[in-house]
Amino acid sequence: MNYNAASSNYPQNTGRKLHKRPVEAPGFETTGYAPPPVQAPYNLYNPPGGMPQNNAIPNYSQQMPGPPFGAPTMPMGGYVGGYPNAPPVGVGGLGVGDPGLLANPIVTNVAMQYGSALVGSGKQLVDREFEKYVPVTRLKYYFAVDTSYVMRKLKLLFFPFTHSDWSVKYEQNEPVQPRYEVNAPDLYIPTMAYVTYVLVAGLVLGVQNRFTPEFLGIQASSALAWTIAEILIELVTLYITNIQTNLKTLDLLAFAGYKFVGIIFAVLVNLIFLKTGYYFALAYSSLALAFFLMRTLKWQVLADIESVQQPSPASYAPAVDNRAIGHKRRLYFLVSVAGIQPLLMWWLSSHLTS
């Protein structure tokens, strides 16, 4: 090679620093190894793999920026402005529209507890409103009976003269249930006696060839109407005479319904011994019922008067007179309730003996 120092191709020393040209690395053809491609920055509007089509699930493996604050939303969780659809947020990592939401035990337990609380509150509201018109709690007390009580009560109604203890036992200011106290009033025997009375009336009318469905309906409604009228008269009498007792309306209903036991006995005796047996049975059952009511109501009507001690006449003379007057009113009420029973028993059964 000829060397020519004056050649123009040779760079002149001008005092400036010369940069060397980088030597390119050998390519795949020389070494057999290709360098990794340079990855382009993430493009929000053109993500790798393209935008998801139709219902395809987008790739969220890379960090993507969220939507701007206040951006309007689109259906299915999308955002206006080119943002892809985001998965809906739900409870426990499940979406609101995810069918697996109901399978989550936490959601199921919460829903069951809320439903139970809602049903319980609704039941309490219905019971409270229904209790205002129908005393269900009190009715449960009057029907708390058993077979032993029914037999002892029927024996007491037919043979009250052999009974000595007529007081009603109390437990925590509440009377003991009838199954444990034979002197307590009940509504089971009066209800069954009323139904049996209607059936026996139909039997007697059939034997006498006078049975008709209309007459049987009149018989049932008439007996019920007279019973209700009797209770109303007793309540009005207690109100007018200002008699304070422990008697309740259901107690009066129970005492008024015991008369049907004696009526059934008298009507059945009439089928065998005709009118002679009927009058004898009616007289005995009426007397037994009157005695039973006198001794039973005495503890309800006269108990508070007799429990008061006799005060000094010198200092409490007006009080003694008022107490004596109140005692007479209570005694008249007691006698009237017991005395009207034979008349009602005859009225409700005499037409069945023809």
Task: Tell me what the structure shows.
This protein is an all-alpha fold and 354 residues long. Helices cover 53% and strands 1% of the residues. It contains ten helices and two strands; from the N terminus they run H-H-H-H-E-E-H-H-H-H-H-H. The chain has a two-stranded antiparallel sheet.
Along the chain, the helix and strand elements come as HHHHEEHHHHHH
Question: If you average the pLDDT, what whole number results?
Answer: 75
Task: Give the terminus-to-terminus CA distance.
Answer: 164 Å
Number of domains: 2
Gross geometry: extended
The count of helical stretches stands at 10
Strand content: under 5%
By DSSP, the count of extended strands is: 2
Low-pLDDT runs of 5+ residues are 75-84, 89-97, 307-320
Q: How is the biggest beta sheet arranged?
A: 2 strands, antiparallel
Question: What Rg is obtained from the alpha carbons, in whole angstroms?
Answer: 50 Å
Percent range of helical residues: 40-55%
